[in-house]
Amino acid sequence: MSLHAPKLAPRDCGDCQIRHRAVCARCDSDELARLEEMKYYRSFQAGQNIVWSADRMDFVGSVVSGIATLTQTMEDGRRQMVGLLLPSDFVGRPGRAIAPYDVTAVTDLVMCCFRRKPFEEMMGTTPHVAQRLLEMTLDELDAAREWMLLLGRKTAREKIASFLTILARRESGLKARAPKGQITFDLPLTREEMADYLGLTLETVSRQMSALKRDGVLELEEKRRITVPSFDRLAEETGDDADGGMLA
Amino acid sequence: MSLHAPKLAPRDCGDCQIRHRAVCARCDSDELARLEEMKYYRSFQAGQNIVWSADRMDFVGSVVSGIATLTQTMEDGRRQMVGLLLPSDFVGRPGRAIAPYDVTAVTDLVMCCFRRKPFEEMMGTTPHVAQRLLEMTLDELDAAREWMLLLGRKTAREKIASFLTILARRESGLKARAPKGQITFDLPLTREEMADYLGLTLETVSRQMSALKRDGVLELEEKRRITVPSFDRLAEETGDDADGGMLA
DNA sequence: CGGTTAATTGAGGAGATTCAAGATCCGTGG
DNA sequence: CCACGGATCTTGAATCTCCTCAATTAACCG
Q: Which GO terms describe its cellular component (chains A, B) (predicted)?
């Protein structure tokens, strides 16, 4: 693990790359000023835990850069990832100080944290934060339910394909709508983390990745770097209908 | 299917049995009056669809009495239930008119519906509805994530035990905290519906129910009526830790 | 009563897991 | 620069859990 600090935080909210997607998206300049007073940045290195399940959390906040995971663990060690947090995603719940899940940085990561108390007060007095948080929570609920279908009903191959489709869509979505042609991206997760996300074992993940490679659905030069020759071909493997089963 | 109309709706909000748990829980009498203007009741018979996936929804609303399910279906017919709606639970999403799931009444059911447009306006102007809806959505998200662990990592026996534990807890919870001694209740779902909820086949559900009966964890006189001699014994079968893995 | 739906049970098979052995990658220090 | 060690990943063989297909039994309703 490197010792140098992860990417620097933005100078102020105006410069922030998640300004228009995070909980603060709807805030006017007055509200932003209030948030600035209660906010502070924290950096985490890849592999570090941000929050431990059952521990007290004195803050809530947004992922500014990097990727984090939400995981639940059973007594005997079985693990299930229940969320993948990308930049602008929210961590914590107003009104609850005890964390229900482990939150872990899988890459170097920067969080924009708000002290719990003043944030909760603001939730009660100005509507824009609460409105945006509701919207984001509803989106997360949709994503969780999509994942329930995957976990309960999809085959290992379909699970892998679905996961890769999300990554591929996100990768190409940053550039242009409707992914066409060849897409290349890095896997943010290890095989084991993928397994925890998909409700599989790491061996099964590895085997299905090899199978998809063998069948020409994807190419693997380095272990963590993936090329998808045809997005549509990959999407066919997910078991979803043509539009990818996404919400309209 | 019986032809007589299901249970009557309450006269007004003051008499309503879900008044203090539904989206309207936090509303003062002025706000309640506004809601009364946009609300109407609808009754559904057991088995009837309330909403079809991909159809337009002109209302949102609360389940007043009865039980409904949220289900997703894949092209080839594989089905996964992604939610079980009990009295006070909310249906629909402000800001989205297209339903992402099928909503089906599994018992006779009454809904308190709000016309979409005025409800959305109210969301923007008075904070109490939005605040309560946020709280409820966060609870649903927790429940969905709990279910992700079940779907991804639990064995068939643990899945059944977990589901029955929820029902048993709810049954005894209505009377007293900390379920002790013998609990008896009716299954609201068929074996097939349980299978769709738990990510299993109906045969596996049936087999595991028989196994739990054989092992003395539960008694089955009629197919849908269950007696749990010891709640703790059942809870041991869920794979969760002692407190049932519930949130503090 | 039939006829229908729901539930149980059995036999056989498929898909994923477990256990185990190697291969590959990468940072570190000789 | 290259060799070592740990972590990550791949692959194989055996096993097991759950599914599929099929036959029966039980409950339900006119």
A: cytosol
Distance CA B115, CA B35 (A): 10
| Tokens 């009741």 -> residue | B41
Res. A232: pLDDT tops 50: yes
- Residue B73, classified by CB atoms within 10 Å of its CB into exposed (0-12), middle (13-18) or buried (19+), is middle
Which residue is associated with the tokens 């000023």? A33
Count CB atoms within 10 A of the CB of residue A47: 11
Q: Provide, in whole angstroms, the distance separating residue B201's CA from nucleotide D20's C1'.
A: 10
Pairing type for strands B79-85 and B219-220 reads unpaired
Among B residues 164-193, those touching chain A with beta carbons less than 8 Å apart? none
A123 Cβ nearer than 7 Å to chain C strand:
no
Which H or E run includes B63? strand B59-65
Distance CA B133, CA A141 (A): 13
Does A248 sit within 8 Å of B101, measured CB to CB?
A: no
B2-24 in b/e form (b: 16+ CB < 10 A) is: eeeebeebbeebeebebbebbbb
Note the pLDDT of residue A2: 39
Q: Name the pTM for this structure.
A: 0.93
Which residue range(s) make up the domain with B131? 13-150
A20/A142 same-domain check: yes
A90 shares a domain with A127: yes
CATH number of the domain at A162, please.
1.10.10.10
pLDDT of residue A241: 81
User: Cα(B104)–Cα(A157) distance, rounded to whole angstroms?
Assistant: 30
Do B114 and B190 sit in the same domain of this protein?
no
Task: Report the SS3 class of residue B65.
Answer: strand
